[in-house]
């Protein structure tokens, strides 16, 4: 089976043309259908730039990204619109990513309208189901983002991403700003949703302790490159790269 | 031995608007901390842990009011004048907060900000204050302290800024340091370094530490004792090791389970 996502020799450069600052410096990586691939690394290692380049939120300088066999970089028109529906993203800070002046129901419904996936009454029904699916109440559709806690806002962001029936989700530090209890709840929700909807996740995080709870495989980034990629259990048992060893050493050693 | 800090029946309330009843934030807390103790204050968001830290420091916002007793060195902090409290703060009682950028003056070089602490507490010689500040920055692990001390806060990384705040807090050798989520805004690698520094300074100085966090991982590696706060009440106060093995209150169990390795199920 071909991977859902195939990345080859991807380069993302910032700064002036020909500038030498490569946030992503020749990355090749496959993401298999149904898995959770964690992308970990210290701040500045290039993991967020890689996530954005995959979604075409930034233009790569070189390399290819294939989604379900199609070249993402050359997509246009209907093909690009279809890709934008099938691949969704949840960011770290739902306070910044949810429009404070829109009601939750409208925020979640917006994607359904843009992609013309359902008539208005059907879309509203779908929003109600989505809110319930992420653990919120149907009546929450009428409320505004500021009326919710951080964890609830992240559930709203997840409902919005799911509204267009995507297959692939980039979760960019999606649980990093949450308190440990809420984080555990949101991780559980993500695992349930993945099982129920056959989703594929790219889970970007700096904290390996969180990754252990959700990832199938882990790719470790350092200075724009993937320095190690291994099954989660293997990476935790025998990290090969210095970067993975440093990230593991940073997890507080609880004296159980 | 009498306790360094003794909190007795501490209540904090938010005034209710327009005749509404006040909202209880802390509902009668009692605990004590002895000299040299390391105590973690563990709670989820909204449990009241930051209000507690602010109440101890006399820094509650005007909308919040405290009653009860907070005895520190035998003085009731809640009954002291702001002037006396300010003298205690810094000299005997110091603090570090989560977000070092907002706690530092953006327009002043960090070395000068540390030196200002010594000046505010009676050091008259400006050059000696600056030498002491640079020395303290170096001990707080700021690499190349003489050069970095001349930088402005925005020219430093988050971890470096937290080291500056720690240098300011430790400069006057306080008997008690209150640290409110000092590493929550930091990358895990930097978090590990700052915690290590905090542990080393606590040990070397024999200082008492009250570490506020939602993350038992952070507390368990640093504090011998853990107080669990839930909805404004202390629901458990135990040796950290016991809490990890036998959490008694359901909220403690939830907080322990949230950090328990998956390979080691309950």
Description:
The complex is a heterodimer of chains A (256) and B (266). Chain A has 256 residues and is of the alpha/beta class. Chain A has one domain: 3-Layer(aba) Sandwich (Rossmann fold). Chain A contains 10 helices and 10 strands. A 6-stranded mixed beta sheet of chain A has the order 6-7-8-3-9-10, sandwiched between helices. Chain A has a 4-stranded antiparallel beta sheet with strand order 2-1-4-5, with helices on one face. In chain A, helix 4 crosses helix 5, helix 4 packs parallel to helix 6 and helix 5 crosses helix 6. The longest helix of chain A has 18 residues. Chain B is an alpha/beta fold and 266 residues long. Chain B has 2 domains: 151 residues, Rossmann fold, CATH 3.40.50.300; 81 residues. Helices cover 38% and strands 24% of the residues of chain B. In chain B, the strands form 2 sheets. A 6-stranded mixed beta sheet of chain B has the order 6-7-8-3-9-10, sandwiched between helices. Chain B has a 4-stranded antiparallel beta sheet with strand order 2-1-4-5, with helices on one face. Chain B is globular, with a radius of gyration of 19 Å. The N and C termini of chain B lie far apart (39 Å). Classes of the chains: A alpha/beta (256), B alpha/beta (266). Chains A and B meet through helix 7 and helix 10 of A and helix 8, helix 9, helix 10 and helix 11 of B.
């Amino acid at each position: 089976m071909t991977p859902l996502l195939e990345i080859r020799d991807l380069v993302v450069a910032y700064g002036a043309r020909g500038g030498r600052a490569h946030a992503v410096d020749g990355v090749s990586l496959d993401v298999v259908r149904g898995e959770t691939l964690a992308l970990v690394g210290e701040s500045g290692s290039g993991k967020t730039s890689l996530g954005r380049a995959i979604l075409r939120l930034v233009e790569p300088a070189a390399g290819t990204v294939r989604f379900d066999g199609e070249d993402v970089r050359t997509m246009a028109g209907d093909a690009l619109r279809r890709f934008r529906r099938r691949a969704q993203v949840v960011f770290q800070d739902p306070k910044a990513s949810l429009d404070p002046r829109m009601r939750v129901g409208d925020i979640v419904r917006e994607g359904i309208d843009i992609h013309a996936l359902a008539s208005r009454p059907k879309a509203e029904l779908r929003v109600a189901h989505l809110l319930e699916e992420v653990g919120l109440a149907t009546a929450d559709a009428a409320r505004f983002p500021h009326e919710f806690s951080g964890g609830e806002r992240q559930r709203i962001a997840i409902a919005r991403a799911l509204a267009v029936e995507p297959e692939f989700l980039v979760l960019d530090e999606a649980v990093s700003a949450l308190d440990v209890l809420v984080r555990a709840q949101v991780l559980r929700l993500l695992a349930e949703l993945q099982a129920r909807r056959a989703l594929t996740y790219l889970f970007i995080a700096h904290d390996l302790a969180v990754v252990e709870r959700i990832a199938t495989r882990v790719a470790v980034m350092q200075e724009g490159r993937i320095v190690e990629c291994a099954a989660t259990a293997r990476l935790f048992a025998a990290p090969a790269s210095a970067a993975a060893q440093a990230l593991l050493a940073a997890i507080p050693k609880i004296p159980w | 031995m009498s306790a360094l800090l003794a909190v007795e029946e501490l209540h904090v309330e938010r005034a209710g608007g327009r005749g509404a009843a006040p909202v209880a934030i802390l509902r009668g807390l009692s605990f004590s901390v002895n000299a040299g103790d390391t105590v973690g204050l563990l709670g989820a968001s909204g449990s009241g842990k930051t209000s507690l830290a602010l109440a101890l420091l006399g820094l509650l916002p005007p909308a919040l009011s405290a009653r009860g007793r907070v005895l520190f060195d035998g003085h009731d902090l809640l009954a002291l004048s702001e002037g006396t409290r300010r003298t205690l703060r810094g000299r005997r009682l110091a603090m570090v907060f989560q977000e070092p950028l907002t706690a530092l003056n953006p327009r002043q070089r960090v070395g000068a900000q540390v030196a200002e602490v010594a000046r505010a507490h009676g050091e008259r010689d400006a050059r000696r204050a600056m030498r002491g500040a640079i020395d303290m920055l170096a001990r707080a692990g700021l690499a190349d302290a003489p050069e970095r001390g001349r930088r402005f806060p925005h020219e430093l990384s988050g971890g470096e800024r937290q080291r500056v705040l720690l240098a300011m807090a430790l400069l006057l050798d306080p008997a008690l340091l209150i640290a409110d989520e000092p590493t929550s805004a930091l990358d895990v690698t930097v978090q590990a370094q700052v915690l290590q520094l905090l542990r080393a300074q606590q040990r070397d100085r024999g200082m008492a530490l009250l570490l506020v966090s939602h993350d038992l991982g952070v507390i368990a590696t640093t504090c011998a004792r853990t107080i669990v706060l839930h909805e404004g009440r202390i629901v458990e106060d135990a040796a950290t090791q016991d809490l990890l093995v036998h959490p008694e209150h359901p909220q403690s169990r939830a907080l322990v389970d949230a950090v328990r390795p998956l390979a080691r199920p309950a």
